[in-house]
Design goal:
The chain has 416 residues and is of the alpha+beta class. 49% of the residues lie in helices and 10% in strands. The strands form 2 sheets. Strands 1-2-3-4 form a 4-stranded antiparallel beta sheet, covered by helices on one side. A hairpin with a 4-residue loop joins strand 5 and strand 6. Helix 7 runs antiparallel to helix 8 and helix 15 packs across helix 17.
């Protein structure tokens, strides 16, 4: 009994001592992280209150709140002309990492800053490194280089040309990856159409951009949570309609005769091969083989070597004459390589002089080549291989022509 009484008495004294310390040091229980009050960096500040932030003295060193979670703190840097939210992360390597979350505003308040700080910390712990690719344009360039290494020059060339036309010099290319929002992507997509691009072409550019952005997530240039912004952007519906602008042989010849100079050679090359314009303007002298009458093309579906018609062989013989293996087969009148869209206005002018329908472009010649080839009896598989597209696409857009051609050939066969 004596032992028990002494033990109880000792416990009572301990409780009284703890109670006294709490009463004499009230901040000890209100701010558990307030370890030292004589050092400004070790003090937890109530920066979630706007009136507290307003009374802070401007200084370079942020005022830190109690940690949001283990290793993560949110602070505010008070300057004479405003304040900025700062996140600090103590990583596994015992280092402090800092990140500016933007200016303190009515929309970027304490709660928004806490959310942004946690997202940043999650990305840091996942190994996200924004220094490699900070902007949308940076991510697109990195994607092009990856395509060149993995898929080859043809796929890289197609993606690079799309980005050159629609991203690199566009406002969207300058946006930071972690600041890219659904509305900005949709505005970019709609702007392509309002700028004269067909909805089907805008969809193809959107697909390529999404691929680059997904590549940025896979390579940890940006956090995976950011992908929701472009996943929500949808392509235009019913955009892949059958092409209806077709030029017959007389019209194609009129277009060629109306063109002057180097654009005439480009038009003739498109007429004779059905190749994509990007494949033609990137072709080098070494890609033309006179002995076999063939041309190797590099496009978005990879590389392919196609046989040439006699007229095409003569054209490329003339274009290749006197050129080194690395020289471009097709160049502008000033001898420089064709850049994207250099030919657009020249082709429109030639079409107008030839009194052709509005809307004629170099892709019209590709469509006309495929149409003429199928009507002449070539199989869809042969056409698909020659123009570098899938049999599915040929069947979707030109299947009706194959059926008509087959019906005409059936009429000449005696079965009974």
């Amino acid at each position: 009994m004596t032992f028990s009484w002494v033990r109880m008495k000792s416990r009572k004294r301990s409780c009284e001592a703890i109670s006294y310390r709490l009463r004499s040091q009230p901040f000890a229980w209100q701010y558990p992280y307030r370890i030292r009050t004589d050092h400004p960096n070790m003090t937890a500040h109530a920066i979630h209150l706007s009136n507290v932030r307003a009374k802070l003295t401007p200084r370079r060193e942020p005022y830190w709140a109690a940690p949001l979670e283990r290793g993560l703190s949110l602070g505010v840097r008070k300057l004479p002309d405003g304040a900025t939210w700062i996140a600090r992360l103590h990583d596994d390597e015992k280092r402090h990492r800092y990140h500016s979350l933007g200016h303190v505003t009515s929309t970027v308040d304490y709660q928004a800053a806490c959310k942004a700080a946690r997202e940043w910390a999650t990305n840091q712990r996942a190994g996200v490194d924004r220094k490699i690719a900070e902007t949308v344009a940076d991510a697109c360039r990195a994607y092009v280089e990856d395509r060149r290494r993995v898929k080859g020059a043809g796929t890289a060339y197609d993606a690079a040309r799309r980005f050159e036309r629609t991203v690199y010099d566009h406002a969207i290319g300058k946006i930071a990856l972690d600041r890219l929002r659904q509305a900005r992507i949709e505005a970019w997509r709609d702007g392509l159409v309002s700028g004269g691009l067909a909805k089907a072409s805008a969809n193809r550019n959107l697909i390529t951009l999404k691929a680059a952005l997904n590549f940025a997530v896979a390579r940890r240039f940006v956090g995976k949570g950011q992908a929701i912004e472009w996943e929500a952007v949808k392509a235009f519906k019913n955009a892949g309609k059958r092409r209806t602008l077709y030029l017959d042989l007389t019209q194609r010849r009129a277009l060629r005769n109306a063109a002057v100079g180097a654009v005439g050679d480009l038009i003739e090359a498109a007429m004779l091969t059905g190749a994509r314009v990007g494949e033609l303007v990137s072709a080098r002298r070494s890609q033309f083989e006179h002995r076999t009458g063939s041309l190797t093309l590099h496009g978005k579906t990879g590389s392919r070597t196609v046989p040439l018609a006699p007229a095409a062989v003569e054209l490329f013989k003339r274009l290749a004459k006197g050129k080194l293996p690395g020289a471009f087969l097709l160049t502008r009148d000033d001898g420089k390589p064709w850049a994207p869209s250099d030919w657009d206005e020249l082709v429109r002018d030639a079409a107008a002089d030839a009194k052709l329908p509005t809307g004629v472009c170099l892709y019209t010649l590709r469509h006309s080549w495929v149409t003429a080839a199928i009507q002449a009896g070539m199989t869809p598989l042969e056409v698909a291989r020659l123009v570098g597209t899938s049999l599915t696409m040929i069947d979707k857009h030109y299947g009706h022509l194959a059926i008509t051609a087959a019906r005409q050939r059936l009429a000449t066969v005696e079965f009974v």
